[in-house]
């Protein structure tokens, strides 16, 4: 069993989501000592932001594989015929986004440390999510609608946020962090999605400690299989 552990907080050792994601992974290892672990710290080593150059490299690669059709295929064919080529840095950035996608595809369980920044997720985490949105690999559009292809995976989100946004809170409508992650992973077919949450982190040291303790206690009930 392969576990992919992602962190994205910019707060280093002080980070609550890092403590929580580490607690989740430690618990999974405890229940399944043989699992293989891959760790990616998106704050230390960000994946590239999507860009016109990366998109061109990606479309060129799809064109060369015969996986494009219609107007886009004709547009890329014309650009290549006119002498345009993805440059070396775009090729290398595109390759990096593919490595992130391949790590996700190979994992059985994905643990994501996800802080709330300005009501959403950190831009580094969004850039990683952008790597996963891959037609033909994580989802397909067809006449029948969208089909998610990542249904066999389990995703555990270690969520941390300064305020309180859970169901009964008057601020619930401002949550674009957990709600975005839920939308994205549901879109690509993940049904086994768990949120382990520490919230109210900025409401004082006691609330911070009790939110972290109860989230870690919840993490301690998880099992890898
Ligand atoms: C750049 C930044 C933006 C933040 N924006 C919000 C916010 O919109 N709402 C909120 O409740 N807390 C916000 N916070 C507080 C964090 O969600 C809280 O400190 C949480 O513990 C962050 O996770 P971390 O400790 O893993 O970094 C923000 C913190 C930072 C550093």
Structure characterization notes:
The chain is an alpha/beta fold. The protein has a single domain, classed as Flavodoxin domain (Rossmann fold), CATH 3.40.50.360. The chain contains seven helices and seven strands. The longest helix is centred in the middle third of the chain and has 19 residues. The chain is elongated. The termini are close together. Bound molecules: flavin mononucleotide (FMN).
Unreliable parts: none
Structural class: alpha/beta
> What is the CATH topology assignment?
Rossmann fold
Structural domain count = 1
Q: Could you tell me which ligands this complex binds, including any ions or cofactors?
A: flavin mononucleotide
Q: Please, how many helices?
A: 7
Gyration radius, to the nearest Å?
A: 19 Å
Provide the β-strand percentage band.
15-25%
CATH architecture: 3-Layer(aba) Sandwich
CATH superfamily: Flavodoxin domain
Order of strands side by side in the largest beta sheet? Answer: 2-1-3-6-7
Strands, count: 7
Q: What order do the helices and strands follow?
A: EHEHHHEHEEEHEH
Shape: elongated
Summarize the topology:
Blueprint: E1 2-7, H1 16-31, E2 36-41, H2 52-64, H3 70-81, H4 88-106, E3 109-115, H5 123-132, E4 139-142, E5 145-148, E6 154-161, H6 178-187, E7 192-199, H7 205-219
Parallel strand pairs: 1-2, 1-3, 3-6, 6-7
Antiparallel strand pairs: 4-5
Helix pairs in contact: 1-7, 2-3, 2-4
Bound molecules: flavin mononucleotide (FMN).
Flavin mononucleotide binds at residues 9, 11, 15-18, 115-119, 160-163, 201-202.
């Amino acid at each position: 069993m392969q576990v992919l552990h992602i962190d994205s907080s910019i707060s280093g050792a002080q980070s609550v989501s890092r403590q929580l994601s580490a607690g989740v992974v430690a618990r999974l290892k405890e229940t399944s000592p043989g699992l293989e672990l891959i760790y990616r710290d998106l704050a230390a080593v960000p994946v590239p932001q999507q860009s016109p150059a990366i998109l061109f490299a990606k479309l060129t690669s799809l064109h060369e594989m015969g996986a494009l059709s219609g107007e886009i295929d004709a547009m890329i064919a014309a650009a290549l015929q006119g002498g345009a080529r993805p440059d070396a840095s775009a090729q290398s950035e595109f390759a990096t986004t593919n490595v992130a996608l391949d790590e996700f595809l190979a994992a059985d369980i994905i643990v994501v440390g996800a802080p709330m920044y300005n009501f959403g997720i950190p831009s580094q985490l969004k850039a990683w999510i952008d790597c996963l949105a891959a037609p033909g690999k994580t989802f397909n559009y067809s006449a029948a609608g969208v089909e998610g292809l990542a249904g066999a995976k389990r995703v555990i989100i270690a969520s941390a946020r300064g305020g309180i946004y859970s169901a009964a809170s008057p601020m619930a409508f401002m949550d674009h962090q957990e709600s975005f992650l839920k939308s994205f992973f549901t879109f690509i077919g993940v049904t086994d999605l768990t949120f382990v949450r520490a919230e109210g982190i900025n409401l004082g040291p006691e609330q911070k400690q009790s939110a972290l303790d109860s989230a870690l206690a919840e993490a301690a009930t998880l099992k890898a299989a």
